[in-house]
Amino acid sequence: MASTWIKGLGTLAVLGAAGFGAILFVTAPDRQDPTVWADLGEPDLAHGREVFFAGGCTSCHAQASATGDARLVLAGGAPLKSDFGTFHAPNISSHPEAGIGAWTLAEFGDAMTRGVGRSGEHLYPSFPYGSYARMTPKDINDLYGFMKTLPASDVVAPPHELEFPFNQRLVLGGWKLLYFTDAPRVELADASDMVKRGQYLVEGPGHCGECHTPRNALGGFETGRWLAGGPNPEGEGTIPNITPGSKSMGSWSEGDIVTYLESGFTPDYDSVGGSMVEVQKNMAELTSGDREAIAAYLKAVPSVE
């Protein structure tokens, strides 16, 4: 009898270990094929600057009070409060130790498009790689080339403040399995080239959905409510619905949206406020064509009331 129990427990242990191993294999960090980052040539720094502002890098990684050239010092540290704890934006300046100045293009690209850190660890989706995953290798190359020209900072950002189990990066593999995708957020039939460009900017580098789409209890986007707004993840106020079904913005024309992104003024002559202030500053740095493309896409997405 005892030997039967021992054999049974041994079998369960083997099956449990095999199952745990299978889970680890399925949810392991997944890098891009290295050939993705090969033969891209010298980065286009002027275009990299445009991608930099489209991606809103200064909003989280520069000092909150920074103005002018100080906005280009990406020392990190900005807190992002959430239901899972407080995340702190890292130093992504060109400093070789405190920042990412010593990273290769492949390491930078894997962080941006796969949420995989330099040491092969899962990155928390407070860093919006779920959106950046849609960026082209050329844009990544140009962006990193531009970022390496920016000032270095030796400031070491504080660590994240997370409780168990959220402080265990292994669980992020399961989160990615459930929610991480580089597929389009919405399917737009017969979209014009301008709308397609807007879709790329909004769903990719602009990562607008990261704030404007409501999330479920696990932090994944709610299905069918793309850009529909919801509670502010930092706990104060709400993030507006920016689909055509919005009560506040649904009546805006494409021209109204373009003016807002460029100047910060609404059709009612109100001005941008809250966290959108930094976003609007970034949008003002884009070309007029890109702002028009963003507006065209926002008027084309499914309406959510």
UniProtKB/TrEMBL annotation:
PROSITE patterns: CYTC. SUPFAM superfamilies: Cytochrome c. The keyword Transmembrane helix does not apply. Residues 43-151, 193-302 form the Cytochrome c domain. InterPro entries: Cyt_c-like_dom (IPR009056), Cyt_c-like_dom_sf (IPR036909), Cytochrome_c-type_DH (IPR051459). The keyword Transferase does not apply. Pfam families: Cytochrom_C. Keywords: Heme, Iron, Metal-binding. This is C-type cytochrome.
